[in-house]
Amino acid sequence: MTTDDTTAIRALIERSQDAWNRGDGTAYGACFTADATDVTYVGTVYHGGDEIGRAHQALFDSFLKGSRLSVDILEIRRYGADTAVVLTRGESSKGEPKKLGKLATYTVVRGTCGWHIAAVQKTQHKPVMEAVSFTFQPATRPAAR
To answer: Closest by alpha carbon to 86, among 35, 13, 31?
Structure first.
């Protein structure tokens, strides 16, 4: 992966974060492809940048009004010249988050207009359940990174 590609992919995730933090659903949706899939941590599935932007604007105007998205990129892995998977830890909160308790896996693709999000899956991290699993089934513990 070239430094330029890594920088562009990081900038895409930052653009989506900035749009969220401004409460700008149109700009948020513009970070996604026209046929993107967004699976929220509560299980809602949105399709396409327009729908993702419209739905998030409704959220920004109500439940998520004034919220801030904090995102930490954990890794970027390339699959060919025009596709990458980005693993992040993050949280949406009003004020400073106590912890970054959600994980998101983004599939990003490069098109004629640069990098865009083709899919994202968000999951709430459940450390207690994870610890129980590791205690009773140590073989379920992933390798350290």
So the answer is: 13
What is the rounded CA–CA span in Å between residue 41 and residue 44?
7
Sequence-distant (6+) residues with CB within 8 A of 85 are 76, 77, 79, 105, 106, 107, 108
Q: Is the separation of the CB atoms in 17 and 71 below 8 Å?
A: yes
- The rounded distance, in Å, linking the Cα atoms of 15 and 102 is 19
Structure tokens at 79: 């699959």
**Cβ proximity of 67 and 94 under 8 Å:** yes
Distance CA 9, CA 83 (A): 10
pLDDT < 70 regions, the chain? 1, 145
Distance in angstroms (rounded) separating the CA atoms of residues 68 and 98: 13
Per the domain annotation, does 82 fall within a domain?
A: yes
Count of domains for the chain: 1
pTM metric for this prediction: 0.90
Residue 52 lies in a domain: yes
Q: What CATH number has the domain bearing residue 44?
A: 3.10.450.50
Residue 132 CA to residue 35 CA, distance in Å, equals: 38
